Structures are given as C-alpha cells and as structure tokens.
Amino acid sequence: MFEQHFPVLPIILPLIAAPICILLIRAQLAWSLATVISAMSFCISAVLLLTTLDQGVLSYALGGWEPPWGIEIRIDVASALVLSVVTGVSSLVLVYAKESIEREIKPDQHTLFYTAHLLCLAGLSGILSTGDAFNLFVFLEISSLATYTLVSLGSDRRCLTAAFRYLVMGTIGATFILIGVGMMYMKTGTLNMVDLADRIAEYERSRTLNTGLAFILVGISIKLALFPLHMWLPPAYTHAPSAVSAFLASTATKVAVYVMVRFIFTIYGEEYVFHSMGMDIIFLALAIVAIFKCSFMATVQSNVKTVLAYSSVAQIGYMILGISLASSIGLMAGLLHIFNHALMKGALFMAVGAVFMRTGSVDIKAFQGLGRQMPLTMAAFTIAGLSIIGVPLTAGFVSKWYLVTAALQQQDFLIAFLILAGSLLAIVYIGRILEVAYFKEPPETIEGKTIKEAPMLMLIPMWILVLANIYFGIDTSLSVGAADVASQWLTESAPSPTHGIGEGATQ
C-alpha cells in the first residue's frame, strides 16, 4: 500500500523537512536530517526509475481528484531518470557539504543552508514530477528562490551581486514561462499536460498558442542558460559556496533542459516545433555557438570555478544539439548527456572545493604542485576532466559517441565534425589546469609548508561520482537503456502532426 505513494514522496519529504531544519539549533542535527531525507528521496527515485522502465508511466492523483480536474503527479522514464540524478547528487553534495561549508559559510547560517538546499531539492523534484503546467511554474519558483539564497551565502561579497543578477534573470525567465502557460490556459481551458496536448492538437490555427510557445521557450532558455541567455551562470557558479556550485551545476540547468523537452515533445509536438516553426535550426545554431564560444571563454579564465562554469554552458550546448537533431537517437543522446554531465561536473566542482578548503584560492596558480600534495583530489579532477573531454572508458565519451552517431545517421557530417572539434577546446582548458597541478613545483615547499589532502567526508562523495563516471563509461546498460526508452516514449507520445498549430492565424 505504501508504495503507491512513492511518486509524491520525493516532493513531500524535503518540503516537510525544510522548515524543521531551520528550527534545529545545532547545525549537526540539520545536516543529519537533510542528508537522511535526501538519501530517502534518492532510494525512492531509483525505485520509480526501475518501475517506470518495467511498467511505464505512473500517475498519482492528489487529494483523490482524478486528472484533468485534479492535480496529477506523473512519472515517466525521462522524469524518473533525471529525478534519480537530482536526488543522488543532492545526497552526495550534502555529505560533502558538512566539511566544505565550515570554510565558506558563516556558522550561524549553516542551518539556513540545509533548509534552502532541501527547498531547492523539493522544487526540482516537483518540476520533474508534476503533470500540471501551472504547478511546474510554482515548483520552478520554489527551487529558484532557494537557489538565490544558496548562492548568496558565500563569504565572498561578490556572491551577493551574483545572486542578484541570477534573481533578475531568473525572474524574467519565470515571468516568460508564466505568460506562456497563461496563454495556453486561455486557449484550452486546462493545465493538465496530457489534456493540454490533446486540446492543442485540435487547433489548426492559433496565434495565442504560438505566442505562448515562444514565451515558454525563451523563459526556459534563460533558466537552462542557453547561449546567449547564459550570462547569469558564470558569476553564480564562481562566487557561490563550492557545495552549492557542485549541486547547481549538476542539477538545476539539467532540470530546465528536461522542462524544454517536455513542452516540445509531449505538449506541442516535435513535428510542429521543429518542422513547422523551424526551431531545430535555431536551437542547433545556438548550441554550436555555445559549444565553441563558451569553451573558448573557458580556456582564457584564471579562476578554475569560472572555467568550469563556462564549460557547463558549453556542455548544455551538447544537450540542446542532441535535442535539435529531432530524432529518437538525438534525443536519447541529449538525455544521456544530462545524466553523464551531472556525474562529471559534480566531481569537478567538488575537487575544486577541496582545493579551496586547503589553499584558500581557486585560481589556477593555487593548483601548482597539487598533484603531489593532494593526489586523491587531483586524481578525481583528472578523471572527471577526461570525461568532460570525452576520453574512451568514461561517461563523457558515451554521450559524445551517441551525439556523433545521431548526426551521422542524418548524414550531417559537418555537425559530427563540430561535436568532435568542441572536445579539442575541452582538452585545452582541462589541460591547462592539469599541467599546473602535475608539472609545476608547489611554492609552499620552499617554506617547508605542506598542504594536506582533503577530508574523507569530501573525498568519499567526490570519488563516488568519479567511479560512476568510469562505470557508466564501461557498462552503459542502465544509463543508455533508460535514455533510449525515455526518448522513444517522448517521441511516440508527441501530439499527432496531422493537427498542427499553423501559421497565419488571427487569434
């Protein structure tokens, strides 16, 4: 009986635990509660993923009101896959955060950190689980408000400016999404996503729905930091506490990518968005520019967190590129890269946070000689960096392999070449850091000082992500299998292209 409530628990558990955290006087208790709740959410998410792979879509009617009249929690393979990533990374980051925030956040704000983290987790889980378009906006705002708080908690005063910029851009994006959802509701009279898809497919012409789609796509593009709407992301990731950067880089933008996939494939329909409106060309062009422009920007930064931030925007380009190919294998590659990139970037930001804890800096110069002084941390950074590049036997290679395969399947040889060429720039910005860490003498050895390895509580979650990078680069049955099933379900569930939302409408 209890298992029937699993779809709603990843939202309810952190939502209930968050206000309890803020009431706890001791940060140790808040950390324990947040970690246990996040771990429980991950276990439930893993069960949901396996269940959806076996049984298909799970529907849960809140309050006993059946959809479309009531609010529906709807879990499919795609949402369960991303939900598992979000809750899994959250659990590891919370273990990591116990030591990390001691250096970067004031002691009297530790309970606030855990509260905001749980609220952000509840919001992200809600976005992935809800079957209601308006509630998606509500959960998006819950996660966003918590995120602004998390970014602002850093000891560096520049984090306040970064959080404010994030807030302004995030508010604009959320407003665009709300306007788009309002237009959809005005035309169809429903907010349930399944019902929306059915009713939208009945309209042959509607300028209202076209405009709503435009608002939604722009709003989501801001939230996922699609070039050129990405300028809020580098300062936010750079100045936020390391645990916050690791969590957001692995989850927040990935959830926004999923939201875009959901609106394109299950509500409006791939045929209309890509073929009738030509959004595939626009997304493809923006994705390619993002890959090269932001990878180049990463190569000229001196702050390693800024390097990784620009790298994140470039990697988002790979996800959008896969989606823009408008094929089942392209969508599968995009979803797979969401999963794999969370493993890579989480490990990289954790490693940089460990360096900051021991050296007090994340400038490239601070990495001199750390290959010998912090061998486990730098080994983790190296393996995760190789995965970002796409070296065989790492998760990053698998993603890029399927992206190239999707391009070649459509005989887009130029696109396939550009995907591979983008990896060359990743070699440059990751190689710069590894060169300093392994081939330069540490300045501290002259004065007889030594830098210790990171604490075990920081190394364990870091290395779990590193080993996951290797494991899912060798055994792809779960990751590729889930992404493949998800892509097939998304493309098959798309509204029928025989009823478009054509151009030249008057209403």
Question: Can you characterise this structure?
Answer:
A two-stranded antiparallel ribbon has the order 1-2. α4 packs parallel to α10 (242-268) and α10 crosses α11. The N and C termini lie far apart (48 Å). It has 507 residues and is mainly α. The longest helix has 32 residues, at 328-359. It contains 20 helices and two strands. Helices cover 75% and strands 2% of the residues. The chain has a domain at 285-474. The protein has helices spanning 9-23, 27-55, 77-104, 110-129, 133-152, 158-188, 193-200, 207-223, 233-239, 242-268, 270-276, 279-299, 304-324, 328-359, 370-373, 375-389, 395-409, 413-439, 456-474, 477-492, and strands at 58-61, 72-75. Mean pLDDT is 85; it is low at 497-507.
Supply the helix-strand structural class. mainly alpha
Number of helices: 20
Rg: 22 Å
Order of helices and strands: HHEEHHHHHHHHHHHHHHHHHH
Mean pLDDT: 85
* Low-confidence blocks of residues: 497-507
The biggest sheet amounts to: 2 strands, antiparallel
Rough outline: globular
Helix content: over 70%
Number of strands: 2
Order of strands across the biggest sheet?
1-2
Oligomer: single chain
Q: Which strand-content bin applies to the residues?
A: under 5%
Distance between the termini: 48 Å
